[in-house]
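The material for today's practical consists of a large collection of protein records. There is nothing in a record beyond a sequence line and a structure line. Backbone structure tokens are a discrete shorthand for how the chain folds in space. Nothing more is needed to start thinking about how sequence determines fold. As an example, a complete record with its sequence and its structure tokens follows.
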Amino acid sequence: MSFSMSQASIPAIELSLNALSGVLDKGAAFAAAKKIDSSVLLNSRLAPDMFALTRQVQIATDLAKNGVARLAGLEPPRFEDNETTIDQLKGRITRAVAFIKTADPKQIDAAGDREITFPLGPTNKGQMKGADYLNHFVLPNFYFHCTAAYAILRHCGVELGKSDYLGAIPMKMT
């Protein structure tokens, strides 16, 4: 039995987005416990030339929903990038997960050899075969931005561990 593109992407993206939502929950709890305005966390970054936490979450959700949509041959939903609170970011994640669940796995699986055209910044476009787009663009970039969001909160002092980043991995314990 082969492992399809939809099997390699949909569950992993959904798991990571849900884990990212949990990481944001821990960030909100940290801010409340330390009496820190959560906007401090949302505007934090690891380096001056990196995006802040809010933008990392926005990009991660965009990569997830847009990547799945393009592979499934759908028009990606547009999110306005106007979130200013942790709850709004969590809502964005919820909307992205809900959209991803509507994608037809058969359409995604059929996209392996189809050319996918996608924006690269405001004026450029990229083009790749579907399998390459998923494996060499969507997933690496998605995980990068999820990791950056995790790292920003960890750097700010939020008590997070590897299990927070990984989320609720479906496995049996023996």
